[in-house]
Amino acid sequence: MTNNKNMIKAIAAMSGGVDSSVCAYLLQRHGCTVTGVTLRLIDNGNSGENEDAKHVCDRLGIAHMTIDFVNEFRENVIDRFCSAYLSGYTPNPCVECNKYIKFDKMLECTESMGCDIFATGHYARIERSGSGRYLLKKAADASKDQSYFLYSLSQHQLSYVRFPLGGLTKAEVREIAEAQGFKNAKKRDSQDICFIPDGDFAGFIKQYKELDPLPGSFIDSNGNILGSHNGAYMFTVGQRKGLGIALGKPAYVLGTDTAANTVTLGDNAELFNQRLEADELNFIAADRLTEPVRVEAKIRYSHRTAPATAVQTDDDRLIVIFDEPQRAITPGQSVVLYDGDTVIGGGKVKRAFD
Q1: CA-based, 20 to 30 A from 154: which of 22, 101, 127, 259?
Q2: pTM tops 0.85
Q3: One of 23, 94, 97, 109 is an active-site residue; which one?
Q4: pLDDT average per 10 residues of sequence, the chain (354 residues)
Q5: Is 32 a catalytic residue?
């Protein structure tokens, strides 16, 4: 018989989805005393998600609690998201949420509740190196790998967190959920930004910041005026659809200047650059890069990794030189560096250049 005093006390971060539900189940199956915790992040509530999470907890016979982080989420994710766009950057709010909310706040909960570990339903793996350093690795299911979103984790956070789904496929996760009778076993994966479910980021920012139209100019690479728009913040590098301008040929956003309120348009070929500069660096596999390193670099979640050389030139400055030019390297997005399936680290793209 297991001695309860020796059982690992664990928190399962539960969003109401199938992944976090199976995460809680696997913790329990491995002998942990589990508490399901749902973070309330947006004002209009997540009652459906909360109900699904509670249903799973009831099925498992574990406690469930909801903690309100609406203010923290607004300040650290929504406000940062809007400020970045208004400054000419295209942020990834999931990276910010993981950095400032999910892992930071879940670790606070773990420590304040006297628990030993916490777990999430992310598809990634953690291993310990021979030197004792925690390493973040890609998931076994390459099609679901989420290591890109997790590059900002610290060694302290990695020492507490567990990713029970890292070695499973999505199909296996759904099979487990169905076998356990979870009502969310076939629930559709969320594909949208949670606070912008319709995907209209420009409309959201305009309403959230109560902005009037900001008339500006579309220009070409030589500064010639091509037409007008209602705000440079409404566009992102690589965008083709929804420009509201007809030039008689396909036009793409090459860049935005929110200070001048201009949007530069050009041909697809002009979107390719071979180098990028990044800051807001975080390294996992090492404290820093002491010499040029051959890597596989990923410039957005949907982007395939590409061979490159990474050079850290200062405490918070990284240059990535790709073997071949990459399309639509976008300021504000994250660049993540890999050595095989191991995350070296990453940072925020500041600019692209040749």
Answers
A1: 22
A2: yes
A3: 97
A4: 67 95 97 96 75 95 95 96 96 94 94 96 97 97 96 97 97 96 89 87 96 97 96 96 93 97 97 98 97 98 96 98 98 98 98 96
A5: no
